[in-house]
Amino acid sequence: MSKPIVAIVGRPNVGKSTLFNQSGKRRVSIVDDMPGVTRDRIYLDAEWLNQPFTMIDTGGIELDESNHILKSMRDQAQIAMEEADVILFLVDGRAGLTSADEEIAKILRHAKKPVVLAVNKIDSPKQEMDIYEFYQLGLGEPHPLSASNAMHLGDLLDALIAEFPKGAAEEKDEDEIAIAVIGRPNVGKSSIVNKMLGEDRVIVSDIPGTTRDAIDTHFVKDGQKYLLIDTAGMRRKGKIDEPVERYSVMRSLRAIDRADVVLMMINAYDGITDQDKRIAGYAHEAGKASVIVVNKWDIYPDKDDKSTLRFTDDLREQLGFLQYAPVVYTSALTGQRVSRVTELVKYVADQQMMRIKTSLLNELVRDAVSVNPPPMHRGRQLKILFMTQADVHPPKFILFVNDPKLMHFSYLRFIENRLREQFGFEGTPLKLIVRARKEDEDV
């Protein structure tokens, strides 16, 4: 199920990036007093009152047609509005109502989307009288806000989630494995989808960016139901020129959000690029099971018996955070090893749903500590008192310890490695959470 999307729009320099950062509780956007600093949409997962959502920070809407950069920023904001479930229109309370605000309000009244109006830079109760002139925009009640110090932020987030779609989410078939096919343009995503399906269900072209939207296809293989989502290729921000292609990036991220398993496509001829790392990082951070598909292996230059080993070693070095993901070398053109892709999808989907008995986990902890005792820190030693599995998809484990501050990340990685050695979990990230528990507490 996709999370609701909120697009923040407004004139340049009204505080959109500051609000974005406060909502996400981490600094993501560049904040500067110079108008136009944010020139691209930036996406952030946020949560309020147990309601997750995605927030889009946009460049300011500038109505000057003569400046191509400002026009591009306006186009990006327009696309964000089209993709959003709710639009957050931010205005500047210190500057007061401007003609540009009125023109943007006209656009928003025709957007056919819920609009929440926020008046920023209201830093004291005395200034709250300044919000009333914004009723003239005809967008309902203006909400006072000071994004820089988060004053009234909770009230604003309450207003936003009240506008989220109700009951519109598609019910997922629990017996169906959802697969998102992701990667840079022209790595063979659509071609491999067609080979997996055994028929031409998706347009195939040598022109990068042919696939604009995510396309859902249901199929059954060996009694297992699958949902295959073919997505548009994701490029670096500087390489995305067409507004419709910018829209496709958001669709690709939504596909990852909906998926159980991600097929990370890499062009063998190009090797591993920085953009491959970024795209794979989206899936890893989202906690999705992954299979790395190295496509176009039939045209890989200078192949010999050790080529696969060398490429895999480079892959593991470049994509260090995906050490757990199996790798398959394919040719969508010839069909080489494409059947292996579906087998791996089913395998890693089962791995991410695996549950381990608490007794076995604590036996693993005892063995791990006896082989490699936790190091001392300032005269104190970490004690792992208890370990249990809290969730699946991805598997989540909780380690109760005497003091979480004594848990070094390297020792946590050691425990994760032991989990994988003992139980597998191939293809899926693991989440290990450290919590405090007194030694005399009942477990």
Please, could you describe this protein's structure?
It is a single chain. By secondary structure, the protein is of the alpha/beta class. It contains 11 helices and 17 strands. The chain has helices at 16-24, 68-83, 99-109, 153-162, 189-197, 243-258, 274-285, 307-318, 338-352, 358-371, 409-423; strands spanning 5-9, 42-48, 51-57, 86-92, 115-120, 142-144, 176-182, 215-221, 224-230, 261-267, 289-295, 327-329, 376-377, 380-381, 384-391, 396-401, 431-436. The radius of gyration is 25 Å and the shape is globular. It starts with a strand and ends in a 7-residue tail after the last strand.
Question: Which features characterize this protein?
Answer:
6-stranded mixed β-sheet, 443 residues, alpha/beta, 17 strands
Ends apart, CA distance between termini: 35 Å
State the low-pLDDT regions, or none.
26-41, 233-237, 239-248
The run of helices and strands is EHEEHEHEEHEHEEHEHEHEHHEEEEHE
Overall, the morphology is globular
Secondary structure tally, helices: 11
Radius of gyration: 25 Å
Give a brief outline of the structure.
The protein is α/β, with parallel strands linked by helices and 443 residues long. It has helices at residues 16-24, 68-83, 99-109, 153-162, 189-197, 243-258, 274-285, 307-318, 338-352, 358-371, 409-423; strands at residues 5-9, 42-48, 51-57, 86-92, 115-120, 142-144, 176-182, 215-221, 224-230, 261-267, 289-295, 327-329, 376-377, 380-381, 384-391, 396-401, 431-436. Helix 3 (99-109) links the parallel strand 4 and strand 5 (115-120).
